[in-house]
Amino acid sequence: MDTTIQCPRCDQEIDAEGPACPACGHIHNGTLNCQRHPEREAAGVCVVCSDALCDECDAIDEMHHACADHSAIPVIEGWAQIYTTSDEMEADLIKGNLQSEGVDASVLSQKDRSFNVEMGELSPIRVLVPAYNYLEATRMLKQHMDASGEVVFACPSCGEAFDAGDATCRSCGTPLPTPAA
Predict the structure, then answer these.
(1) What share of the chain is helix, strand, coil (3-state, %, to 5)?
(2) Which of 27, 86, 135, 167 is the most exposed place for a label (fewest CB within 10 A)?
(3) What is the pLDDT of residues 107-150, one digit of tens each?
(4) Nearby residues of 104 by Cβ (< 8 Å), 6 or more positions away
(5) Mean pLDDT, to the nearest integer, of 154-180?
(6) Where are the beta strands (DSSP E) in 47-160?
């Protein structure tokens, strides 16, 4: 018995039993009441936090539903942008570390391989996670951000990977970057 259906709004394959599409927030199974206005029927659910949203609370664009707190997060076909960089190796490292923590991640690069010129902001490399994993992935990345906002997964002295919360490198004893407050 197939328990998946195609979302009528975004065409993603989704769980038929779930109340809403995780990619776009379209309610496809029953009705929900708005989280903030319980007397109103929800138009959709936020793809990031899953709060049910009435028309007034929905900062809807044409592709997905989002609450006011998460409307500024770039979402591409159900994938939320969690980090941008111009360094492909950094993006792949962040992707790999998120995956090792159990969060699906993907890298979207718009770099033109035919030019050897660095285009900086004109060619961002995006690290994406499923929108419904955005909050968890953000929490994970913050555990590895230094005071300047850079994501650091390895000792700056010897390059050995470290776990969030480690104060010193287990390999060489060097103090590790302090996470941002």
Answers:
(1) 15, 20, 65
(2) 167
(3) 998 765 545 555 555 668 999 999 999 999 999 888 877 777 77
(4) 98, 129, 130, 133
(5) 81
(6) 52-53, 75-76, 79-85, 106-109, 125-130
pLDDT band at 180, cuts 50/70/90? Answer: low
- Average pLDDT over every residue of 147-169: 79
- Characterize 116-131 residue by residue with b for buried, 16 or more Cβ atoms within 10 angstroms of its Cβ, and e for exposed: eeeeeeeebbbbbbbb
3-state secondary structure 6-58: ECCCCCCEEECCCCECCCCCCECCCCCECCCCCCCECCEECCCCCCEECCCCC
Q: pTM for the full model? A: 0.79
The strand ranges marked E within the chain are 4-6, 13-15, 44-45, 52-53, 75-76, 79-85, 106-109, 125-130
Domains of the chain by start residue, with CATH: 1-72 (no CATH), 75-142 (3.30.70), 143-181 (no CATH)
